[in-house]
Amino acid sequence: MEKFPKLENNQVAVLTVDGATGHILNTSCSISIDGSGDAIFHVFVDIEAARQFVKGASLINDKIEYVVYGKNEEVLEFIEATHWK
Fold it and tell me: Which of 14, 34, 52, 79 is the most exposed place for a label (fewest CB within 10 A)?
């Protein structure tokens, strides 16, 4: 798996997780296998862009959960899968 990306200014990184299993997903929405070098973070210019991504992606797969990180690797938001809401 990749290391946490270097973020600038208001950029955020989004990690996707299979809500049914807890597996971390790569940016292609497949299970990420440790040591594979898979990209696991989606990087966005700001949190609003990340929220728009989550909104659209949730329509495609409603069992994915999202963790939004700030530039200091702090969790800004956890977005639960819509399937369980």
Answer: 34
Q: What are phi and psi of 20, to 5 degrees?
A: -80, -30
The answer as to whether 64 is a domain residue is: yes
Angular region, 51: left φ>0, alpha ψ -120 to 50, beta rest: alpha
**pLDDT tens-place string over residues 15-27:** 999 999 999 999 9
In the predicted structure, residue 36 carries a pLDDT above the cut 80: no
- Residue 66, amino acid: Y
User: How many domains does one find in the chain?
Assistant: 1
Going from the C-alpha of 65 to that of each of 2, 16, 55, the distances in angstroms are: 19, 6, 11
Check residue 24 and give its pLDDT. Answer: 93
